[in-house]
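thought: fold this chain, then report.
action: predict
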Amino acid sequence: MFIGILAIALIVYSLLTFDPKVETWTSLFGGAAIGFFIVGMPSLWAWYKKRQQSKIK
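observation:
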C-alpha cells in the first residue's frame, strides 16, 4: 500500500513540476504510465494468480 501511495505522490509531483519548455509530453505520459502500473500491480498479480489456478483445475 505504501508503494501505491508513493506512486500517486510521484504522479502528482510530476504534474506540478512539468515544464513544457524543457520536457516533452512523452516523458510525462511515460512517468504516469509507470505510476499507474505500480498502483495497479497488486490487482494484476491477483488476476494472474487466479488465472493460473483456473488452468490447474
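thought: worth noting. The mean pLDDT is 78.
final: C-alpha cells above.
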